[in-house]
Amino acid sequence: MRHRVAHRKLGRTSEHRLSLLRNMAASLITHERIRTTVAKAKELRPFVEKLVTLGKRDSLHARRRALSILANKTVVRRLFSDVSPRFSERPGGYTRILKLGPRQGDGAPMAFIEFVDYNFKGSEAPAPAAKAKAKSEKEDEPVEPVEEEVEEPAEPEAKKPAEKKTTKKKSS
């Protein structure tokens, strides 16, 4: 029976596991979306959500506690200035896990873990409805002919003498 057994071991010692979670949390705060295995993502979720809740307080004590966990001043600064204020009105549930297919090498189930307000910036192409709307707006506008001024050359170019073509003789 698994009574009072809280977390996954992830095949690591406790020090290695804590280091892994700290590094993954720093990457998630920096990039706002990371790709990892499902088991690691499920372990990372409560770890990061506690950090975001800590960041919502924004006191010196909270910053020092976050620094003791993350140990990177730029990541802590980003947590307190960018990430946590976005969730100031939200009572919890700051991350989501999106499951992907199996990994190519070993078949491990993969997932994205991201903040819930993450906007994917991958393809800059507008949605099909936006394209149709833009196209209909272009059709409504009248097309005005564009008049271009063509400058004629002042002096006609002198003809150059034609070059003689040389042919190679076939040697038999």
Descriptive report:
This protein has 172 residues and is an alpha+beta fold. The protein has a domain at 14-115: Ribosomal protein L17 (50s Ribosomal Protein L17, Chain: A, Alpha-Beta Complex), CATH 3.90.1030.10. Helices cover 44% and strands 12% of the residues. The protein is built from 5 helices and 3 strands. The chain has helices at 14-31, 38-57, 60-70, 73-86, 128-140, and strands spanning 33-37, 95-102, 109-115. A 3-stranded antiparallel beta sheet has the order 1-3-2. Helix 3 (60-70) packs across helix 4 (73-86). The longest helix has 20 residues, at 38-57. It is elongated. The protein starts with 13 loop residues before the first helix and ends in a 32-residue tail after the last helix. The model has no long low-confidence stretch (mean pLDDT 85).
Q: CATH homologous superfamily of the domain at 14-115, by name?
A: Ribosomal protein L17
Main sheet overview: 3 strands, antiparallel
Please name the CATH architecture of the domain at 14-115. Answer: Alpha-Beta Complex
Give the low-pLDDT segments.
none
Number of strands: 3
Which structural category fits the helices and strands?
alpha+beta
Q: What is Rg? A: 31 Å
Mean pLDDT: 85
How are helices and strands ordered from N to C?
Answer: HEHHHEEH
Distance, first to last CA: 96 Å
Strand order of the largest sheet: 1-3-2
CATH secondary-structure class of the domain at 14-115: Alpha Beta
How much helical structure, as a percent, in the residues?
40-55%
Rough outline: elongated
